[in-house]
Design a protein that fits this description.
The protein has 362 residues and is mostly helical. It has one domain (2-355). The chain is 80% helix and 0% strand. The protein is built from 16 helices and no strands. Helix 3 crosses helix 10 and helix 6 packs across helix 7 (163-169). The longest helix has 32 residues, at 40-71. The protein is globular, with a radius of gyration of 20 Å.
C-alpha cells in the first residue's frame, strides 16, 4: 500500500515538473524535473562500475569474509553494509548472504544508513564543510551514529527479523560505528584523512569496473570473468532516475509548504529554520544541506549532521534503488531511515541543550 501511494505521489511530481518545464519553469518545478534527469550521469558514474564488479567481489571477498563472519555467527551479508546501497552494497550483500532476508536487510536498509555514511556522507561532508565547522559536523555524525540502532532495529523488525537477530547481526556494524565515533572525537583530522582515502579507493575500484564493463560491451572481451553486463547496471540507474523525476519536484513543494512552519518550529527548538530546511532537502540529496552549513547556527549544524547519518537521500536515490530491485522492501527502508534520522535529531538537541541554554546561536 505504501509503495502504491508513494509511486502516485512521485508520478504526480513528475507530471507537475514536466508541465512546468513546458511552461518555461515559471514555478521552479521544471528545474527540479530537469535536475532529476541530469543526475543520471553522476549516478551512473558512481554506481555502474561497482554493480558490474559485484559478482567478482563476492567471489574474491567471500573466501575471507564468509569464514570470519560465520565464526562470530553473523551472516556474511552484513559485510556488504560497509558500502552504500547504490555503490555495490546491495549486490555484495545479496551475493554473500546465507539468508536471503538478511541479505535484503543488509543490502537495502543497513547499507542505506551505515554504508552511505561511511563511504559518502563523512568524506564528502568533511571535505566540503569549512574547517571551523568540522568539529560541529563531527559531533553531529557521532550523535547520528549513536542513534543509528533505532533505525536499524525498526527496519529489521519490518523485514521480519526478531529484535535479538537485529542486534546480533549488527554487531560488526555497531563495533565499527563505535570506533568511528571515538575516532571522530579523539583524532578527527586523522579520521577525515582515513575516510577520504577509503572513498578514493572505492572510487578507483568503481572506475576500473566501469572501464572493464565498457570494454566488454564494445569488444566482447574482458580479462576479468564473471562481471555483470553494463546494460543491467544501467537499467538500475535508469529506474532510480525515473523516481527522481518526480521526487525532486515533490521535495521542492514540501520545502515551500513548510517554510513558515519551519520558522516557528526552529524558534521553539532554538535553531535557525535553515537547519530544518537542510534536513528536509537532505532527504533528496545531502549536497545542498552541506553547502548551507555556513547559514546555520551551531545547534542546527550538529542536528543537521546527525540527521544526515540515517536520512540522506531517502526520497531520491535510495527509494529509487529499492523500487528497482525489491519494491517490497520500501517500508523497512522508509521506516528505518526516518526512525534513525528523527531519533538522531532528538538526541542531538537533547545533548546540545544539556550543555548550552536554548536560543538561536550564531
Amino acid at each position: 500500500m505504501m509503495n502504491q501511494v508513494l509511486m502516485i505521489v512521485m508520478a504526480a511530481g513528475a507530471v507537475l515538473g514536466g508541465i512546468d518545464r513546458i511552461l518555461g519553469n515559471q514555478f521552479g518545478l521544471g528545474e527540479q524535473f530537469e535536475k532529476g534527469f541530469m543526475l543520471l550521469g553522476p549516478m551512473a558514474l558512481s554506481m555502474t562500475g561497482m554493480i558490474c564488479l559485484a559478482p567478482v567481489l563476492v567471489e574474491v571477498l567471500g573466501r575471507v569474509v564468509v569464514p570470519f563472519y560465520r565464526l562470530i555467527s553473523v551472516d556474511p551479508a552484513m559485510f556488504g553494509a560497509l558500502l552504500a546501497i547504490d555503490m555495490g552494497g546491495y549486490q555484495l550483500a545479496k551475493g554473500l548472504a546465507a539468508d536471503a532476508i538478511i541479505g535484503s536487510y543488509a543490502g537495502l536498509v543497513v547499507s542505506a544508513i551505515f554504508g552511505c555514511t561511511l563511504v559518502f556522507t563523512i568524506p564528502v561532508g568533511m571535505e566540503m564543510i569549512p574547517r571551523a565547522d568540522r568539529p560541529l559536523f563531527a559531533r553531529g555524525i557521532m550523535l547520528g551514529l549513536a542513534a543509528m540502532p533505532v533505525g536499524l532495529i525498526a527496519g529489521g523488525l519490518l523485514c521480519g527479523l526478531s529484535l535479538a537477530a537485529c542486534l546480533h547481526q549488527n554487531l560488526p556494524v555497531f563495533a565499527l560505528a563505535l570506533l568511528m565515533g571515538l575516532g571522530l572525537w579523539k583524532i578527527p583530522d586523522a579520521m577525515v584523512k582515513g575516510f577520504c582515502l577509503f572513498a578514493e579507493c572505492v572510487k578507483a575500484v568503481i572506475t576500473v569496473g566501469l572501464a572493464l564493463a565498457a570494454v566488454e560491451q564494445l569488444t566482447s572481451w574482458n580479462p576479468v570473468r564473471g562481471m555483470a553486463p553494463i546494460g543491467e547496471a544501467m537499467a538500475v540507474v535508469a529506474s532510480i532516475g525515473v523516481v527522481m523525476l518526480g521526487s525532486l519536484p515533490v521535495t521542492e513543494l514540501l520545502r515551500r509548504a513548510l517554510a513558515r512552519p519551519f520558522t516557528r518550529l526552529g524558534g521553539r527548538l532554538g535553531m535557525k529554520p535553515q537547519s530544518l530546511t537542510g534536513m528536509l532537502i537532505s532527504l533528496a540529496t545531502p549536497l545542498p544541506t552541506i553547502s548551507m552549513y555556513p547559514e546555520m547556527d551551531s545547534r542546527g549544524k550538529v542536528a543537521a549532521a546527525a540527521f544526515l547519518v540515517s536520512g540522506t537521500s531517502l526520497l531520491a536515490a535510495h527509494m529509487g534503488f529499492v523500487l528497482s530491485v525489491e519494491p517490497e522492501m520500501l517500508s523497512p527502508l522508509v521506516v528505518g531511515k526516518l526512525g534513525g534520522a528523527f531519533a538522531a535529531v532528538v538526541l542531538a538537541l537533547w545533548v546540545e541543550q544539556s550543555s548550552t541554554k536554548p536560543g538561536i546561536r550564531q
